[in-house]
């Protein structure tokens, strides 16, 4: 007999959208709305928590991540490359070609650093080689590889002072920390920040709060963990979906932790137990986040 009881969780589902692969939540302080993507739909979404309304902006191919632009609109990482988009999601122009073969790779997790550079990681959809990478797109649209030798690029975030960059290759169950040169946008001196061993302890997207704590969504783990700036486990919070994907701070005081999730490829019995899989969830937290940097180009 299938257990249909909902998981006990402090997270509330604020948008039961049933996304195939929700990702890349980004809070707009100016608009007080949450942008996020559904990689597989594919679409860019604009969710207004005040009204509960979500606007879906279709994309022509898989969209891995998005960032707001200082000049308005967005920068988006699609399967075939990096594009600028208008406020309504209309693609304006392609600014960088994909640095991989789009037949079996696509962009995944990404965001901007404090200086307004856009970073986008890729993933090998065949999972047969460590051939993914993390690239940086500068304000002049120059694309530079900064990390390579991974399968699924994830967990990108920076410490509040911008001196430490975090990154995860999900299948390795390891989050690494790097010294970060803000002048050049270059990470160096990689070291293990946190390592996990459980089969479902797979760090996906992350975010850092104003105290420097790192929050990570565990894909297939049904939870979000909070780690100290030293990598110590401070807390973990169950999510009513087995596949939470990425965290973002939002709300009027940036004290709402939003988490996107996925339902594609999940077993029928799991979706019976977790019917809101693919939704957007929210948790009220004590320590606020920080405004998400905008792309300078």
Please give the structural blueprint:
Elements: E1 12-15, E2 22-28, E3 33-38, E4 43-48, E5 53-58, E6 63-68, E7 74-78, E8 81-85, E9 91-97, E10 105-112, E11 118-124, E12 132-137, E13 143-150, E14 153-158, E15 164-169, E16 174-181, E17 186-195, E18 203-208, E19 214-218, E20 223-227, E21 233-238, E22 244-250, E23 256-261, H1 268-273, E24 280-284
Antiparallel strand pairs: 1-24, 2-3, 3-4, 4-5, 6-7, 7-8, 8-9, 10-11, 11-12, 12-13, 14-15, 15-16, 16-17, 18-19, 19-20, 20-21, 22-23, 23-24
Task: Label this structure with key terms.
297 residues; Neuraminidase; 1 helix; 24 strands; 4-stranded antiparallel β-sheet; mainly beta; disordered N terminus
Describe this structure in words.
2% of the residues lie in helices and 51% in strands. The protein is mostly beta strands. It has a single domain (12-284), classed as 6 Propeller (Neuraminidase), CATH 2.120.10. The protein is globular and about 45 Å long. The protein starts with 11 loop residues before the first strand and ends in a 13-residue tail after the last strand. 47% of the residues are buried.
Summarize the structure.
This protein has 297 residues and is mainly β.
Shape: globular
CATH class: Mainly Beta
| Average pLDDT figure | 96
The count of β-strands is: 24
- Count up the domains: 1
- The helix-and-strand class reads mainly beta
